[in-house]
Amino acid sequence: MPIGFELAPDVEDVRQRVREFMDKEVRPVDEKLSEEHADRGAYVQAIVALRKKAREAGLWNPHLPPEWSGMGLGPVGMAFVSAEAGRTTIGPFVINAQAPDEGNMHTLHHWGTTEQKEKYLRPLAEGLCRSAFAMTEPEVAGSDPTLIQTTAVKDGDDWVLNGHKWFASGAHGARFAIVIACTDPDADPPQARNSSFIVDTPTEGWEIVRDVETMAGPANHPEIRLTNVRIPAENMLGGRGEGHRLGQYRLGPARLAHCMRWIGNAEVALEMMVDRALKRYAHGSFLAEKQAIQWMMAESAMELYTGKLMVLHAAYKIENGLPFKQEVSMTKVHVANTLWRIIDRAIQVHGALGYSTDTPLERMMRTARAARLADGADEVHMQTIARNIISAFKKDGNTRAATGELL
Ligand SMILES: Cc1cc2nc3c(=O)[nH]c(=O)nc-3n(C[C@H](O)[C@H](O)[C@H](O)COP(=O)(O)OP(=O)(O)OC[C@H]3O[C@@H](n4cnc5c(N)ncnc54)[C@H](O)[C@@H]3O)c2cc1C
Question: Where in the chain are the domains?
Fold first, then answer.
């Protein structure tokens, strides 16, 4: 069977159009905003104006089908779009494919009832509101959702939620949140203990305690207390006990979507590294002529290339209904660490300038650190990867099934 790396003409066309739009329309605004250290108001205004242009250019909701005002791209097409958008800070917002809304849209599209889709997916798809996803809790390991302590108890036709969440990205200003809560504490297996609910926000008993300050500043990752939050039974998303499954369904493609954006981000860092090395002169030659610097470039290029192949292969598997969890876990760990290392090397090549706040690199590095934690810490993914390797070996006497099933 031949292996083709050519893009379908429609995907190539979309890639070119997104690239052009990002270069011409988004990047100049992105650079201006970061130069001016713009406040949130300026960001919002700029994004609103650019969103209008993106819609007019037919670059809106790349991940949704046309009946939801989308471009109907599958995961492979999305890899190209997200990598282009990920080259700027605001690019994903401009085309309405930002986290956590993109993942929530996928989830609602797949799991929502007709009524839930009209009420929650429609305004999200039209860019009229934002949403959040609240699973992680401060008291118990986010890595193990079977420990979730937030409870949902049936009371008449309603569910009553009590608990404590944090890092619910985007919750401040969101119109609703998908909340994972324990409905069946004695269920066996423990993965069947949780259910998910759509909570209109703000609502009585939904208290944003604070916006958790992070390395990357206040970035809308609030801590939330739920006290007797009452929601109607029809706001359960998916079936009772399916909260874990829904979370896994949501996180698989959402993790890969992060990787796609990080590829774009890492590419920018590598380009900055090369640009600086070509311009900076020391000890008789430009930095780009020195082997130590060339090795940094070469290592970065190899890691980025590997990451791109991994993203595309995992996307291909999702798109074709093949098992993809092992590939997505491997890709997530690899790309998150590649991003970190390439930004670090770019800072090294920039010297003191790299350490300063005069270039975007320091901000990129602070933001990139979260990549190794959010949507599953490295160690948790690596535990899964190793488990799959061991079971493939036990079953087949080799590890091929757990290493991409390629060669
Ligand atoms: C920027 C950012 C945005 C986020 N957005 C959201 C969001 O929108 N919604 C949401 O619900 N959550 C969100 N999170 C939370 C994120 O999903 C959790 O941080 C993640 O699941 C890890 O959980 P934890 O922080 O509780 O760490 P813990 O579970 O306490 O783990 C801490 C460390 O322990 C180690 N560890 C854990 N388990 C194992 C294991 N089995 N083997 C070996 N080592 C292990 C790892 O090194 C891990 O980093 C976000 C986090 C960040 C940083």
Answer: 9-112, 131-237, 250-402
Is 131-237 assigned to CATH 2.40.110.10?
yes
CA distances from residue 125 to 133, 194, 209, 257 in whole angstroms, order as listed: 16, 27, 28, 17
CATH superfamily of 250-402: Butyryl-CoA Dehydrogenase, subunit A, domain 3 (1.20.140.10)
| Ligand 1 center–CA 286 separation, angstroms | 42
User: What is the domain class of 9-112 according to CATH?
Assistant: mainly alpha
**pLDDT tens digits, one per residue of 350-406:** 999 999 999 999 999 999 999 999 999 999 999 999 999 999 999 999 999 999 998
Distance 248 CA to ligand 1 centre (A): 14
Residues 240-269 have pLDDT tens digits of: 999 999 988 887 788 899 999 999 999 999
Nearest-CA residue for atom 25 of ligand 1: 142
The pairing of strands 176-182 and 158-165 is unpaired
Distances (CA, A) of 11 to 8, 196, 254: 5, 34, 20
- List the residue whose alpha carbon is closest to atom 49 of ligand 1: 377
pLDDT tens string 2-60? 678 888 899 899 999 999 999 999 999 988 887 766 677 887 888 899 999 999 999 99
Query: Ligand 1 pocket: which of 98, 130, 131, 136 to mutate (most atoms <8 Å of CB)?
Result: 136
For residue 170, the ligand 1 atom closest to its alpha carbon is: 8
Q: Which residue has its alpha carbon closest to ligand 1 atom 2?
A: 374
Determine the angle formed by the axes of helices 243-279 and 361-368, rounding to 10 degrees. Answer: 150
